[in-house]
Amino acid sequence: MITPVPLGTWPTPLEAAPRLAARLGLAELWFKRDDLNGLGGGGNKIRKLRYACAQAITEGATTVITSGAPQSNHARLTAAATARLGLSCVLVLAGAPPENRRGNLLLDGLAGAEIVWSADRPLAEVVAVEAERRSAYVIPFGGTSPASTQGYVDCGRELRAQLPTVDGVEVVTALGSGGTMAGLVRELGAERVIGVDVGALPDPRATVAGLLVGEVEPEALRIDGTQVGAGYRTLTDAVRVALEVTARTEGVFLDPTYTGRAMAALLAGSFPHGDRVVFLHTGGLPGLFGHPEL
What we know:
The chain is α/β, with parallel strands linked by helices and 294 residues long. The protein has two domains: 14-42 and 145-290, Rossmann fold (3-Layer(aba) Sandwich); 45-143, Rossmann fold (3-Layer(aba) Sandwich), CATH 3.40.50. It is built from ten helices and ten strands. The longest helix has 14 residues, at 45-58. The chain starts with 13 loop residues before the first strand and ends in a 13-residue tail after the last strand.
């Protein structure tokens, strides 16, 4: 196994959330604060980038390229990680450049990333062309690969050390590109991990199972699909409520794409769970400022 590069600060805090627990009727609720891991505004992608960037350096790369939506947290953290490591960064983002740079897009530029817009071309096609032209190392969408799931195996081990016991505890996480859930499942078991689909993948169950390389049957994965709404980039009423409730009970800010959807599912009671829950805060706060409709 490749040795990860030293990005971020570990372990991240595990904080009790008693007021929100009471609102939800839970005996115990904790936030695993992966938004507070110290690099580029924080977020879950740092754990994956520790392994992806290590691989890029091992292969002698001087330029890293990745892709995402205009408000991609992964793109922002790739820009921050490569800046710290002295690598060049190219971000291929979906669509055309907006009139104003807000949220993650503003931070991408501050970190020195070069942005290439895909316009009407498929992201994967643009990434392939740019990577060949620049001899760049490609980090997949969301930073997710079988190797990078080790970042969330690490997180699962942290939780084992921080909790009195993991018995009877369930971990709720947003499910985007699948690597975060896959790593947690590998360490904690499929029965303890609930992924809330944010609509980033056509078949999230197959993707997560594929990352686990046959270790878990797809049917064993606990995935809730009730919060996708009109699509990945849309802000739903349920998410707006989740953002407000979390901020007003615990002073914790969520993002409108990932953690907001995961909390909306928890508030709605849309999946069965016990009364001891860890909510994985995967970051994404800058994305709030990319949603003027808020």
